[in-house]
Amino acid sequence: TSGGSRSSLTSSLGCTWPVGITELSSELNVSIFPNPSIDYFYISNTAGFGDDFSIQLLNSIGQDVSSQISASKENSGRYYINSSALANGTYFVKVYSNSKSITKSLTIIK
Asked: Which of 40, 46, 56, 71 has a beta carbon 3.0–4.6 Å from 29's, enabling a disulfide?
């Protein structure tokens, strides 16, 4: 795969297994806007999202706060994220799609 590295685990017998999800930002052309955001933001991907699309939202100390947002897919293929329950601060949005992931930062201001 171009642009990324593959994580693997090799046993003492020489067998190799892939480990984890490789983060390849060049293959997931994800945009998050507006950023900074107040009560909502959008996530779009020029290549579209796979059936396995999901997002995880982490606060600045790494706590998962995904339960505080709701997402809905729009006709254009982008996702509308209601973030009105979030406090001011910097968050990390981890997007999973097509067995790949990318992490972007997001700032919430009220």
From this structure: 46
